[in-house]
Amino acid sequence: MASAVAERAIQDFLVFGECYLLKIVNRFGGLVRLDYLPAKYMRRGVTPGVFWYVPGGAPEVEYPAGAVVQIMQPDINQEIYGSPEYLSAIQAALLNEAATLFRRRYYLNGSHAGYILYATGDIDERDTTKLRAALRASKGPGNFRNLFVHAPAGKEGSLKIIPVAEQGAKDVFLEIKNATRDDVLAAHRVPPQLLGIVPAQGSAFGNPRDATGMFWMLEIIPLLSRFLRINEYVCVEAVRTRGEIERSHLFPLPKD
After folding, report:
1. Which domain, by its residues, includes 152?
2. Are residues 70 and 125 in the same domain?
3. Which of 154, 199, 200, 210 suits a disulfide with 158, CB 3.0-4.6 Å?
4. Are 1 and 34 in contact (CB under 8 A)?
5. Integer Cα distance of 28 and 25 in angstroms
6. With pLDDT > 70 as the criterion, what percentage of the chain qualifies?
7. How would you classify residue 91: left for phi > 0, otherwise alpha for psi between -120 and 50, otherwise beta?
């Protein structure tokens, strides 16, 4: 199998929990090569072994039984399509996205003062009218404006600002980002030092080489082993790992 086909098939497997390969055979029925079929548009037919390519907006293509090889991540609820392993972290990823969008809109909006201006004492009515107008004018995109109030006859405490949305503004943004990040990393089982994540102050992630060895042994090798099943379906050695599994000793597990 060509490296470009393998790359796209592995990408589909990681995203959709399944991938599809089309067997190209010669006139004698021998396997010539394996072509990539996008998993996003592949559907199983009613007849066992038959697959359909349904791109949407284009004519459907039917592939007869035995023409398509399907490699999928097992699912306990059905045996038709694969199930990706990251499904448990989707809600965490959506929460992370919502927190980021909220924070971005919070600053773009500019209308988030969220306080009550409480005025007492000897303040002229014309001044309060101007103050109302200034507060209304201060709302708008990109707003972090200041107001100056001059009250010569005012007393201490004549003007008070009572925050209303102060707790809402402190929306524990960093805590949400860190918690959801940890959930997503746990679902994908990727060591954080391999993703370039900076550790928290006063902490460390450990030796990157040890993390690479663990990730190689526990994630990459099982993934390569799943694609070796293709050889069982086509009855020839269509997939070769070029000794990656055998060379796994280059990244040994950390010793106790």
Report:
1. 113-164
2. no
3. 154
4. yes
5. 8
6. 74
7. alpha
**Length reported for the chain:** 256
Q: Which of 144, 164, 184 is the last residue of a domain?
A: 164
pLDDT score recorded for residue 139: 59
Q: How do residues 139-176 score in pLDDT, each as one tens digit? A: 555 555 555 555 556 666 666 665 555 455 455 888 88
What is the distance between the alpha carbons of residues 69 and 64, in angstroms, rounded to a whole number?
11
Q: Are 83 and 74 in contact (CB under 8 A)?
A: yes
CB 112 within 8 A of CB 170: no
Give how many domains the chain has, as a whole number.
2
**Could you give phi then psi for residue 152, rounded to 5 degrees?**
-60, -40
Q: Which two tokens stand for residue 81?
A: 């399509």
Alpha helices in the chain (DSSP H): 3-16, 90-109, 125-137, 166-169, 173-188, 208-215, 221-227, 229-234
| 190 within some domain | no
- Quick check: helix, strand or coil at residue 184? helix
